[in-house]
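Students often ask what a holo structure prediction actually looks like on paper. The answer is less mysterious than it sounds. You provide the chain, you provide the ligand, and the output is a string of C-alpha cells encoding the 3D arrangement of the protein together with calcium ion.
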Amino acid sequence: MKKKAGAAIVAVMAVALAAGTVPAKRPADIGWPSYGLNPAETRYSSLDQITPANVGQLGVAWYADFDARSLRGVEGTPIVVDGVMYASGPWSKVIALDARTGRKLWSYDPDFEGGIARRACCDVVNRGVAYANGKVFVGVLDGRLVALDARTGKPVWTAVTTDPGKSYTITGAPRVIGNKVLIGNGGAEYAVRGYVSAYDVDSGKLAWRFYTVPGDPAKGFENKAIAMAAKTWRGEWWKYGGGGTVWDSMAYDPELDLLYIGVGNGGPWDIKVRSPGGGDNLFLSSIVALKPETGDYVWHFQEVPGDQWDYTATQHMILADLTIDGRLRKVLMQAPKNGYFYVIDRQTGQFISGTPYVPLNWSKGLDPRTGRPDIAPEARYGSEKPFIGLPSPAGGHGWQPMSYSPKTGYVYIPTAEIPYGYIAEDAAKFHYDPRGWNTGQDPARTAMPEDPKIRAQIRGMMGGALIAWDPVARRKMWSVPMPMPWNGGVLSTATGLVFQGNGEGEFAAYDATTGRKLWSAHLDSGIVAPPVTYRVGGVQYVSVAVGWGGILPLNMGEALKKAVPPRVNRIVTFRIGGQAALPKLPPLERAPLDPPPATAPPEQVAEGHRIFHTNCWMCHGDSAVNHGGVPDLRRSAAIADPATFKAFVLEGAAEPLGMPNFSKDLTPGQVEAIRAYVIKRANDLKADPSQP
Ligand code: CA
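The corresponding C-alpha cells follow.
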C-alpha cells in the first residue's frame, strides 16, 4: 500500500516537473561558516553555479554599508551561517544581514574610546568573526573578546583578553575548535608580549593561554616550551615585551588534532636593543603547533631566527595533502612576509621546501635540510648605514588571505614588492615608550629621502601582483600585475575561477589555470578584503567588503598614490543576473594647496620631522605624503593656525573621527615643530607639483 502511494507521488511529481509547475529540488544552502571557510583555511569553494562561461553575467544582488564612525579601512571576511551574513567592519563593529537581500537584522557597536587608534599600528580594522552554538564571536580593538547572541546581536559574555594598561590591540578573527574559541592579539611594535588564549564557547571562561615569547625569568616560566625558548634570548628582553604577537593566522587539522598559530615579529625590531648578543629569539617569526584542548606545545618551525625586519610568520597558513617526490605529504603552506614560500610537514614541523616567491635580499638561501636561512651579513643593519631591504615590513605578502585550489594545485597569492630602508637608532639612545611606537629604528632616517628623484627611483622598484604558485613544482605559473602593491585577498572555486579586488577598486574574476581576466566591476573604493561565496535559496552569491584600508607604517606613501581611499565601507554581493545598482558617489576632490610660507628655523623643522616620523606617519603617511583614508596634512587648513593645529593634536578636536589625542605624549612645543615640518612639506609640494 505504502509503496503504491509512493509510486503515485513520484508519477504526479514527474508530470508536474515535465509541465514546469514545480521547481526542481532546490540545492541545499551552503554557507561560509568560518574565517578561512574550513579548518584547513583553503578558501576554495566547491560551489559551481558561477562558471567561466557565465561569470560575465555577474551583477550586483545587494549592498549594505557599515555604520562607521569615520571612513577607515575594511579587511574583513564576512561569514555566512544559516542564511545570515555576519560581517565586521572598522572599530570592531559587527552587522548581521539577510544573506539573500542584504537586509540589516542587527548591528553591534563595542563602543570604546577613539584614542585607542593611537596603539593600532595599521588602522582600526577587524578581519572577521567566528560562529558557534548560536553565538557570534568578535575580537574588539581594545582587547575584549565578545560573544554575541546570533539572533539579536546582544552580548552574551565578554572576556578581557589583554592587560588594558598595555598597548595590545585585536584585529584578527577568532577561531572555534570544539568548545573553545581562540584569540590572539597585536602590538609587537608597542612592546607587548605575544600570546594566544582559548576561552570556553559557552561561559567565556579562560581555558588556557600560550605565550609565544618568554617573560621575566625571575617570575618563572609558564611551561617547558617557554623555558626552552628563553635559552635563545639575551639581555633583559622582557622589559620591552619581546613581541611575537599572534595577530592573524591560525589553522586546524582535526585528524591530527593540531592547532597551528603564526607568530609575529620581534619587539623592538632592533635585536641589539631587544636581545643584545643575538640569539634565535624563539618563537618569533615561527609557526607553532599546539594541542587545542590544553594549549600544550607540540612543535615549532622558525622562519627568521633573530628577526629584525618585522618579518612575521603571521601570514595565512593553508593545510593540504600534496604528493611530493612520489610521497603523499600532509603539509602546511605559508607565504610569509620574508618572501619565501614554505611547505612544512604539518605532523612533525619538518621543513620540506622554501622558495622565493618575490625578489628578496635579506637571505642568500635556506638550508635544504632544516630550512634555516643564510642571512646576508649586510641585512644585519646597525645605526651606521641603512639596509635597503626586500621585502619590506609590509612583506612580500601581507595579511591578505591566499587561496589553494586542489583542482589546479595552485596557491593564489596577492604579492607586494616594496623596498624599505632599515636603519637602527643608536642602541644606547633607545628610549622605551610604553605607549608608543618602539621599533628601535631611527625615526629621522627611516623616512624616505625627500629628494623627488630618489623617491621616483624607489617608486620604480615597487609593484604588486596576483600570482598562481605551484607548491610542488615550486614555481610561479602565472602572474597578473596590479596597478599598486597593496591589494585584496583571494577566493578560488571548483569551476576554475579566482576572485580578487585591488587597491584601485576593481573587483575581478580570473581563469584559475591561465590568469586570464574573465570579468570585472568597479566598486568606488579600494579593496583589500578577501571575497567569499555561498549558496542560499538555490542561488550562489559572491561577496566582498569594499573600503581600502590597513594603513601602512611605511615609507611608501606614493606607491599607494593610486589607492582609492575608503569612500565607503560596504559589503557588495553579486549573483548571476543581479540587477541592483550601487549609488553614485561624488567625484573625489582634493583640498586646495594653500600653505602659509615656510619661515620656521631648520632646527625646528628637523625636530618636527623626527617627531612626525614617530607619532604621525602611521596614519598621515611618510614625509607627510598622505595615502588615503585620513586627511593630507599638507592640504589641511589647520596648518595655517597654531591654535587650530594644537586643538587637533592635543585637545582631541578630531577624536570623534578616530584621531587620537596626544596630550599625554607631546608638548605644545613639539606640536609646533610638527606644524613647521608639515608647512615645509606643503611648500615643497607647491614648489614642485610633480611631487606626489
Ligand atoms: Ca609588525
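The radius of gyration is 25 Å.
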